[in-house]
Amino acid sequence: MSRSVIVIGGGVIGLSIAYQLQRNDFQVTLLEKGRCGGQASGAAAGMLAPFSEIGEDQDDFFRLCVTSLGLFKEWQSNIKEDSNIDFEFSESGSLHVVFHEADVLALKGRLSWQKKWATSARMLSGEEARELEPALSKEVLAAMYYPEESHVYAPAYVKSLEEACRKVGVKIIEDTGQIYIHTEKNSTYVSAQNGGTWQADEYVCAQGAWGKELEETLGVSLPIFPIRGQICAYQGYAESVNHIVYSSQGYLVPKENGTLINGASEDIAGFQTTVTEKGIERLTNWNHKLFPFLKEIDPFHTWAGLRPATLDGYPLIGKLKEHPHITVALGHYRNGILLSPVTAHIVTSILKNEKTITPIDLFNPERFS
Known about the structure:
The chain is of the alpha+beta class. It has helices at 12-23, 40-43, 50-53, 60-83, 101-114, 126-132, 154-168, 215-218, 277-284, 287-290, 336-351, and strands at 4-8, 27-31, 47-48, 89-90, 94-98, 122-125, 142-146, 150-152, 171-173, 179-183, 188-192, 197-198, 202-205, 224-235, 244-247, 250-254, 259-267, 301-310, 316-320, 323-330.
């Protein structure tokens, strides 16, 4: 007889976990206090770029990210097939560009250890980088080229993932309002502001930036804080850029719908998702240093999303000792899209009492208690 699971949270992590669990013969109900994908998930730029984003340590977090990138091609194909909804998955590759000689040395140091993982990565001179990106500034001195890195169009990915969940049998309940976990001596159950109550064999908490709300109920420290990420986009200029292009100040990503996405400035603003002039200016003040044609152009669209950050930057993934029927998957910060398949695989392995696909001791959810 299959076990029942309640997944709390309808962002990309919660949806991914629900999808993978249901495909592994669990009976899954997903609860979302608002609408699925309505926060950080749908607002993300959708980059799958662990080599560009992690340049310091080949620790277990880096391994987690690289493992997830390796899963993504088959993962997205399965989601498209199950949902019958297509979405952009671009194996564009990326360029991480630098402007100063000291930064060139840093790129060489990065390549020395990343080469083990990114087997096709290589250093390019400024001239070689401009052969791949003709519109790139002549001030770019060098670049690291990562052919393996990719991106998805996040809103369509999340929509397809939600539909795939429904098609494989996940029961999705939205607009519940605030969700509460009740832990009593011999039982655990969930209630919601809308009056509903649910009970299952297992519970998975994946509420993103709202995970800290569980601290008092579960008696464990979950230092998760919302970081506002502000992004802008240019209409009709995607054809001028061929790859994900990073610099120390941010990134630009061309999408097949013609938009060029520029992100992201970050600040602490509680749960506010309003866009600020200062936040967007942080992007527009530097992006023309990468691509001079952007200097005279105004973005046509701006938005913001909340990223669930932990104190040490690592997610919280695993079972709770005092509540063995509760597993948490929280604090993915700006890597929720990238880490969605590997987190789903890990949580499924935990609930099946199997070895996880990659080490997870670093992500012990009770490490701050």
